């Protein structure tokens, strides 16, 4: 009788356990199925976009947001290194060209490169053109001078129209109407300067080269001055090509080489 009673109780416990587990299974089954379907759709979407199962599953489950952020940081660092190398190579080419021009111009103290750009926007919304002195070379015993940045292009108003026409301007510092320009030249001990356009193959003026002579020295005259002027325009074309090439190959602006 005891064995029979015990068997009945065990059967009752199994029944209660089955009755308890059945609702739990029923409750969990539907969410699990839903999650499985969502994962299937999510993975299938990425497989379709990537064109292969392996690539789609990698993007869906391995390339997480944190992974992509880390990958993007590494990509930006690599692009920066490439840009630095291109900038260094461009600066080397420009400095070499300026040095050749310095040697070609008799008694010149230094040669500097001004690069024009849209620096700021005024209250009217119109862009105010600016220039940077980006490169400078000097003869022995002379300093290259400070590389000033973001200066108003209006400093060149006295001779900018002449350079826009593709010609060089020879002037004395004391005759310059622009006070800021005159002060910068006087601080370097400049007495006379020759400013020539830097124009690319499409006749866009990207900047100017400036050959400077000390106040105690005189620039060449006659045919020799014309020869220096012609060579300065030629060097300006070479510098414009280097600047343009750097811009077209720059990975920072989506050049083909970086894609």
Describe this structure in words.
- With 259 residues, this protein is α+β, with helices and mostly antiparallel strands.
- Helices cover 54% and strands 19% of the residues.
- It has helices at 2-50, 53-61, 65-104, 160-164, 179-187, 222-249; strands at 110-121, 127-138, 151-152, 169-172, 190-199, 205-214.
- A 6-stranded antiparallel sheet has the order 3-2-1-6-5-4.
- Helix 1 crosses helix 2 (53-61) and helix 3 (65-104) runs antiparallel to helix 6 (222-249).
- Residues 1-7 and 249-259 have low confidence and may be disordered.
Strand runs, count: 6
Record the strand order, biggest sheet: 3-2-1-6-5-4
Indicate the radius of gyration in whole angstroms. Answer: 36 Å
Average pLDDT figure? 80
Reported for the largest beta sheet, the result is: 6 strands, antiparallel
Global outline = elongated
The structural class is: alpha+beta
Work out the strand percent: 15-25%
Report the end-to-end length measured between terminal Cα atoms. 86 Å
Q: Number of helical runs?
A: 6
Runs in which pLDDT lies below 50 for 5 or more consecutive residues are 1-7, 249-259
**Share of residues in helices:** 40-55%
Return the string of H and E elements: HHHEEEHEHEEH
């Amino acid at each position: 009788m005891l064995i029979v009673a015990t068997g009945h109780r065990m059967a009752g416990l199994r029944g209660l356990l089955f009755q308890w587990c059945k609702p739990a299974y029923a409750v969990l089954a539907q969410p699990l199925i839903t999650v499985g379907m969502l994962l299937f759709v999510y993975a299938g979407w990425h497989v379709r976009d990537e064109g292969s199962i392996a690539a789609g599953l990698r993007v869906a489950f391995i390339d997480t947001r944190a992974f992509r952020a880390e990958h993007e940081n590494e990509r930006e660092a690599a692009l920066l290194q490439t840009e630095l190398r291109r900038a260094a190579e461009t600066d080397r080419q420009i400095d070499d060209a300026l040095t050749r021009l310095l040697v070609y111009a008799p008694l010149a103290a230094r040669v500097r490169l001004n690069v024009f750009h849209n620096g700021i926007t005024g209250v009217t919304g119109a862009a105010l053109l600016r220039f940077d002195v980006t490169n400078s070379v000097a003869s022995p015993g002379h300093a290259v001078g400070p590389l000033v940045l973001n200066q108003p292009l209006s400093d060149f108003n006295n001779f900018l129209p002449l350079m826009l026409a593709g010609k060089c301007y020879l002037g004395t510092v004391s005759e310059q109407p622009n006070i800021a320009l005159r002060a910068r030249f006087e601080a370097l001990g400049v007495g006379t300067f020759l400013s020539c356009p830097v124009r690319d193959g499409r006749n866009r003026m990207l900047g100017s080269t400036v050959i400077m002579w000390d106040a105690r020295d005189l620039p060449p005259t006659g045919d020799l001055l014309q020869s220096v002027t012609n060579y300065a325009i030629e060097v300006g074309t070479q510098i414009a090509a280097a600047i343009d090439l750097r811009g077209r190959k720059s990975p920072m602006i989506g050049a083909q080489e970086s894609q």
